[in-house]
Amino acid sequence: MSGRVEVDVFHVEPRHHAVHAALVNWADWVRVRPIYAKSPMFRLVISNSRQWHHPHVHDAVDLIAAMQVEKVVASLPQMHADVLRWWYVYQFGEDKFRRIYGLSRDTLLRVCHDARAMVANRMRREMAGAQSVQR
Predict the structure, then answer these.
(1) Whose CB among 16, 51, 72, 99 lies 3.0–4.6 Å from 116's, allowing a Cys bridge?
(2) Could you tell me the sign of the dihedral formed by the alpha carbons of 47, 50, 56, 60, in that order?
(3) How high is the mean pLDDT of the chain?
(4) pLDDT of residue 1
C-alpha cells in the first residue's frame, strides 16, 4: 500500500452546498433530452397508456435561477465553465474528460472547487447589485 489518498472529484464541500443546489437546478434546465419524431399520420394521436402507468412527477426547475446561473457559467474562464458543464450536465467518463483537457485528478478537483466558488461569488455579487438597484 503506497499510502496515497484517493481523490474524489465528486465530493462537494459543505461550504458549496447552496451553489451546488443552484448548479443542479441549472443542469436540469440545460440538459438536452432526446426528442422522438412522430410520423405525420400519428402526430395528433393521444396515447391512452397513461391509464396503465403511474404518473412520474418531475422536480420543478426554477427557470429564472437557472438562466442566472447560465449567465454566470458562461462568463467564467473556459476551463472552469467546461468543468462545471462536464460535472453537472454531460456527465461522461472522468478519465475521458481528464485526457481531453490534460488534467490530473487533483487538478480536476481543484478546478471544480474553484469554479463553484467563482459561481457563488458572482451570484452573491449580482444579488447585492440587484438589491442596491431596488433601493
Answers:
(1) 16
(2) positive
(3) 81
(4) 45
Which three cell numbers, joined as nine digits, stand for 90? 454531460
> Using CA atoms, how far apart are residues 20 and 16, in angstroms rounded to an integer?
6
One-character DSSP codes across the chain: ---PPPP-TT---GGGHHHHHHHHHHHHHH---------GGGTTPPP-GGGTSPPPPPPP--HHHHHHHHHHHHHS-HHHHHHHIIIIII---HHHHHHHHT--HHHHHHHHHHHHHHHHHHHHHHHHHHHHHH-
126 Cβ contact list (under 8 Å, min separation 6): 68, 72
The answer to whether 22 and 123 have CB atoms below 8 angstroms apart is yes
From CA 131, how far away is CA 135, in angstroms rounded?
A: 7
Cβ atoms of 51 and 83 within 8 Å: the answer is: no
